[in-house]
Design a protein that fits this description.
Blueprint: H1 11-25, H2 27-31, H3 37-49, H4 54-71, H5 73-86, H6 90-102, H7 107-122, H8 129-147, H9 154-168, H10 176-192, E1 199-210, E2 213-218, E3 221-225, H11 235-241, E4 259-263, E5 269-284, E6 287-299, E7 304-310, E8 314-320, E9 328-334, E10 349-353, E11 361-374, E12 380-392, H12 396-399, H13 403-415, H14 419-432, H15 436-457, E13 461-462, E14 466-474, E15 481-492, H16 510-518, E16 531-535, E17 542-555, E18 558-570, H17 577-580, E19 589-596, E20 600-608, E21 612-622, E22 638-643, H18 644-648, E23 651-663, E24 666-677, H19 681-696
Antiparallel strand pairs: 1-2, 1-3, 1-12, 4-5, 5-6, 6-7, 7-8, 8-9, 9-10, 10-11, 11-12, 13-24, 14-15, 14-24, 16-17, 17-18, 18-19, 19-20, 20-21, 21-22, 22-23, 23-24
Helix pairs in contact: 1-3, 1-4, 3-4, 4-5, 5-6, 6-7, 6-8, 7-8, 8-9, 8-10, 9-10, 13-14, 14-15
Length: 697
């Protein structure tokens, strides 16, 4: 008999394999496209075949198969499922099934796929704790998709959540999905009421206790409902997740006036944490709390999240600087144990509400610690059920003319394509005339809807369009102006286009890209010769800025001299079509902004990938400006931009900005996109067919 000799491979082999698997996980980021991914994955599988350690074979087979399936579900899901089944990884399989369900059409289709395909498949896996978790996950999401159908069967949804709970009870480790299911069951009695304009958020949070510090780990769950989400504030998410995901300074130094730079996982600065005070008094419906610790966490965009903690009680008040509707105060609590600024004990409960909420609003904001113990990777963990429910009383319109609620109603009506009723609701705000800013905003959106009504009467084919109210906030550094798009009002008034060339409309957003790529609409340092590099705030890319003399710029709105040209490059500026063609990657590529003195942006070009670009020009404006202002923000200033290519092809492809009102450092901005083909649906389809025939010649 010949003795079989196993390959003994050097440590460097495993290190090289680890590096290749990490590269596979970041393939698009590293190489700008998916080209070559198949070959890279194949080479990893060949290397795995040479491993002698069974644990390594299992580890790298599972990791690489999961990466491949996430990258290209259509090509690699079956292979991933085969690998998961081979090693009995029910949870991994369940996660992939849920991801595949999300790609289906309606909520009913998603639920049916999980019930008829995913759950039967998982029942063939080994009967163990991992399978219990996987079945709980699938059943939870089946129930959640059914809950979001137009007319849910609440009894069936309730039974499915109960079934998910039975699966999760077999798991002894801390699991945020267990708490998530508890939150869902608590939400159902409220959702059965079917109150007007209901908004809900059902989540389970998990926190990691590390070296005495509290770290925000995860927040699985879902939300749904009306525009009342503007009153929603995921309190512990904002308190813990903004910046470096720690609730408090990692040094535990609570000295008044102390500051520390928060650092993200990639090592880059992501904001500042400030110890504002340790002696503040906070008055809430739950009582008067003295000597509260006030902590501010300022994000890189200038938004400040403020939290007030009371020793032995926890979070008693929270605000967001640019979202006054999100303010919350403690209305009651049950503290069964624990100590410190955020006491940890199973059963600890905190309930909050908006201190300025209208009388006709019903609000349930409840956070309960459900579990403490070992969790992911044997870490010390805490999990909470988190329920946020906001709705209006059935007779609310008879009892209030609150402009915020009427704006929310108008937005919901637009979502339902009931534009005439939405316009009537906006007129009610004007007639009530209780607040000048509300009237200005209502008139701005109403003007947009009245223009849209003319095109509807002509049966023109609409494309993605919207009416919005945004805010502008002056910051103290370098004359910077922050743009918060749609943070006051948003309504979607169009439908998806069907020509790839229509994606050029994503280039008719000069304010959006200035804010997202440079964190401001203008910086006084932008003079010829200025350069800067910084990481993208949410993509794995480096942003490069360069300022040059812009010279003379001719537009339909006039000829502008002495302009300044800002060039912004993000990521791979020549990436292929399959990654940067559609709107999800319009952040990438090369963008150029021309600023004219006393006017602002007069031209904006936007290119992403090798296949699509837009040219946005100023077509009309009114600007009051002080001497030397390059981006003047004053009440009454207006800018109208068109995308020249789409305009030439028979579209209205326009973005309108108008400063409506303001005081001090904050202004309201009417911010609308009008995008329609100037012809009927039949003429639109004929135009597309004509273009297709021309390309085929």
């Amino acid at each position: 008999m010949t003795e079989t000799t196993m390959n003994t491979l050097p440590d460097s082999f495993a290190e090289a394999l680890e590096k290749k698997v990490q590269e596979l996980a970041n393939y698009r980021k590293l190489y700008g496209s998916n080209a070559g991914f198949d070959s890279a994955y194949k080479s990893i599988k060949e290397l795995i075949a040479n491993l002698s350690d069974r644990e390594d074979v299992e580890k790298y087979s599972l990791r690489s198969a999961g990466i491949a399936a996430r990258n290209d579900p259509e090509a690699y899901s079956d292979e991933a499922f085969s690998t998961y089944k081979k090693y009995g990884k029910s949870n991994d399989a369940a996660c992939l099934y849920v991801n595949l369900a999300w790609k289906l059409g309606s909520e009913q289709e998603k639920a049916d796929y999980l019930e008829n395909t995913a759950i039967p498949a998982l029942l063939e896996y080994p009967e163990d704790t991992d399978r219990q978790g996987g079945l709980g996950y699938l059943t939870f999401w089946q129930a959640s998709h059914l809950l979001r159908t137009d007319d849910p069967d609440y009894d069936r949804v309730n039974a499915l959540y109960d079934e998910a709970m039975e699966h999760y009870r077999h798991i002894t480790s801390v699991n945020a999905m267990y708490s998530n299911t508890i939150a869902a069951l608590k939400a159902l009695p409220h959702l059965r009421e079917k109150r007007p304009m209901t908004y809900f958020s059902i989540t389970g949070e998990s926190w990691w206790i590390t070296e005495g510090n509290l770290y925000y780990w995860s927040e699985p769950g879902f939300s749904g409902g009306s525009e009342l989400y503007r009153f929603h504030n995921p309190l512990f998410y904002f308190s813990g997740c903004v910046g470096d995901r720690y609730f408090f300074p990692r040094t535990a130094d609570l000295t008044e006036g102390a500051e520390e730079i928060m650092t993200a996982d990639d090592g880059h600065s992501c904001g500042i944490r400030r110890m504002v005070s340790t002696t503040e008094t906070v008055t809430t419906p739950a009582g008067v709390f003295e000597n509260c610790v006030h902590i501010d966490k300022e994000d890189t965009d200038g938004t400040v999240y403020s939290a007030w903690y009371k020793e032995g009680v926890g979070l008693v008040q929270a605000t967001v600087s640019n979202a006054p509707l999100k303010a919350k105060v403690l209305v009651s609590c049950e503290i069964k144990g624990g100590e410190g600024l955020l006491p940890l004990c199973v059963g600890n409960t905190w309930r909050y509400e908006n201190p300025e909420k209208p009388d006709v609003m019903v609000e349930v904001t409840e956070y309960i610690i459900e579990q403490m113990g070992k969790g992911n990777g044997d870490k010390d963990m805490v999990s909470l059920s988190c329920l946020d429910y906001i709705a209006l009383e059935p007779d609310w319109e008879m009892r209030t003319s609150d402009a915020t609620l009427l704006f929310s109603k108008a937005s919901d009506l637009c979502d339902a394509k009931r534009f005439s009723e939405a316009a009537d609701t906006l007129r009610a705000i004007v007639i009530a005339n209780s607040d000048r800013e509300s009237v200005d905003c209502a008139l701005s959106v109403l003007t947009y809807l009245e223009e849209k009504a003319q095109y509807d009467q002509a049966h023109w084919r609409f494309c993605p369009s919207s009416a919005n109210i945004s805010t502008l906030t002056l910051r103290q550094s370098h004359g910077c102006m922050t743009y918060d798009e749609c943070d006051v009002f948003y309504c979607d008034t169009g439908v998806w286009g069907s020509r790839g060339e229509e994606n050029r409309i994503f280039g008719v957003k000069p304010f959006r890209y200035l804010q997202s790529l440079t964190d401001t609409l203008w910086d006084d340092r932008w003079v010829a010769g200025y350069t800067e590099e910084h990481p993208h705030s949410w993509k794995n890319a480096i942003i490069k800025l360069a300022v040059t003399d812009g010279g003379r710029v001719e537009t339909p709105a006039g000829v502008f001299e002495s302009t300044v040209c800002l060039t912004v490059e993000a990521g791979d500026t020549d990436a292929p079509r399959d990654t940067d063609y559609f709107f999800r990657n319009t952040e990438m590529g090369t963008k150029r902004f021309w600023f004219a003195p006393g006017v602002g942006v007069v031209r904006f070009t936007c290119a992403w990938g090798r296949h699509i670009s837009s040219d946005c020009v100023l077509t009309a404006y009114r600007a009051v400006a002080a001497e030397g202002e390059m981006m003047p923000i004053h009440i009454g200033n207006t800018w109208q931009y068109d995308e020249v290519n789409l305009t030439a092809e028979g579209y209205i492809a326009r973005r309108d900005y108008r400063v409506l009102s303001g005081m001090g450092d904050r202004y309201l901005l009417g911010d609308h996109q009008m995008f329609t083909f100037k012809g009927t649906v039949e003429e639109y389809e004929a135009y597309k067919a004509k273009l297709a025939a021309e390309r085929a010649q």
